[in-house]
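Input/output pair, single chain:
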Amino acid sequence: LEQKGVVSSYSSKKIKYFVANDPNFLIGYIDRKCRVFDYYREKLISVIPQFRGVSDNFIFHKPIVSFFDGLEGVKHVLYDFLKANCEKMGYISLDQCFLADNNFSDFFKDALKKKTSKSFRIILPNFDEIKKIFNFNNKNVEILCVEKDDFGKLFENEIAIYNNKVCILNLQKGAEYAIVIESPKTADMHKMIFDMVWNSIQ
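Output:
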């Protein structure tokens, strides 16, 4: 307390006495501490943007993974894919159950014919039934047909890539499902792989 200026002392006849100082001394002590606190507070505030800049470089956003079960779940994902107003790409080998569904087949055709300024690139197996769906004129839709014997593994699952999403679709009748991975990094990686496959086939 004496060091803090709250009390003072004196000695008399080998006895040390302590006396409380005026309360203003206590106010002065608190003021000094506040000034020190304010000094370090301002210093900390000034470096907060630097801390944030460093932390932003290491932020990791976990992918959002959604699972859709059944034929209707797969259709829901494909509707979202076809309606998206962005660059789209995919490996598509529509199963017979989709080709037999006139409502879905018509929707698929209408979505592809719709005028858009965004590119839509599709790699298809060279089957007449599938090519009929894509038999139209839209300069923004590009199609590559490949022999399934040579590129069969591309179509073991349908893959649709758009926005920050990668969709994996299984169209095996009775076991239909869709998995949607929403992640910018994952989508960018698959877009790069698609470009490599597209350029190698052309």
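Residues 101 and 107 are 10 Å apart (CA to CA). The chain has a mean pLDDT of 77.
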